[in-house]
Specification:
The protein starts with a helix and ends with a helix. The chain is α/β, with parallel strands linked by helices. It has 11 helices and 5 strands. Strands 2-1-3-4-5 form a 5-stranded parallel sheet, sandwiched between helices. The mean pLDDT is 85. It folds into 2 domains: 131 residues, Response regulator (Rossmann fold), CATH 3.40.50; 68 residues, Winged helix-like DNA-binding domain superfamily/Winged helix DNA-binding domain (Arc Repressor Mutant, subunit A, Orthogonal Bundle). The longest helix has 33 residues. α7 crosses α9, α7 crosses α10 and α8 crosses α9.
Amino acid sequence: MLNGPAEVECVPIVYVVDDDEAIRRSLTNLLRSVGLRVQSFGSTSEFRLASLADAPSCLLLDVRLRGESGLAFQQQVTDRPNIPIIFITGFADVDICKRAMKGGAVDFLVKPFADQDVIDAVNGALASDQKRREKDQSHKALKAAYEQLTRREREVLGLVVSGALNKQIAAWLGVSVITVKLHRASVMKKMDASSLADLVRKAEALGVEIPVVAQAQ
């Protein structure tokens, strides 16, 4: 049972955009029956004005709408580009399907669709969005850790991941080997790196540049 706003916010949510009220109601009832939150809209303009929840989500979007079409929305939207889109349509048009999938849609359902097909498509889209969110959070944490490093520690990090030895780093930076070891230990701790390989992986994820002097070795 959900006890507060924070818990509700974490529950996956499905946004439905269809100008057919009966379709919106049917999809809303179906998805709520399997424990999902649902918000429905009669047009893409209504959806653009909505404040999206900070939770795994996806968009069930009708291809043909009064006003801006679903395909036009997909091609032009820039304020919420990460949300997975599942297109729904009453017309099995191969060209439209190709355009939708090429534009990044995760699925394409033709009306009338089976309840289980909708549930499976939605669950797949939500799982994909959850993985994206976890990856984004991991990268944010990694970036925050890197920002804790001092200028000298960042220099040491670049040299370490290049494969340079402590004595080489000391010579390049004009410091003692002991100082390099202290900086290196601090870098490992702040970056929460369990090994050199782990540090290299994290540096690559951040796009840390290898110093030219190290590349030349």
